[in-house]
Amino acid sequence: MNIPNKITVSRICLIPFFMIVIMFDFGWGTMELFGAEMPVHHFVGAMIFIIASVTDWVDGFYARKYNLVTNFGKFLDPLADKLLVSAALILLVELGMAPAWIVIIIISREFAVTGLRLILAGEGEVVAANQLGKIKTWAQIVAISALLLHNTIFELFGIPFDMIALYAALFFTVWSGWDYFYLNRRVLLDSK
User: Whole-prediction pTM value?
Assistant: First the structure.
């Protein structure tokens, strides 16, 4: 359990705190931030989500810089991302801030890719996220952050950046999922 893996575990541990803050009002009131009015607990939840998301970059950077990349980390890091993103997207549907059909597609892709990863792991292969997968993850993080922050800044100009970002995240999610299955198609074709 090296430092990057501990950072990844801390990301997973932040998920329940994020969920509690978003789900319960706590009577903190509302605030306005660059043209967007939002409940304070949404702002606090967004900050927890953003901090948890940034740990994804921190653990990866640290692991590569100090040559601490492990199979455990290759498995746990994308799993932590999926758990965080899935929790946030489900909460956004609950709050009426994201369409359920988009969330279903995104989460279904995550389950499908996780299943393929398990098949590959059964054959002794641990596949780290590729560049397209990383773009997908960051597109999802940007979209979720914009939604949690009630389209702050862009609300001043009447630009629905939060929804544009969500559709971009959907695009990269589907594309990266197709790419992942295409690159590993031999596993599915060989299992006749």
Answer: 0.91
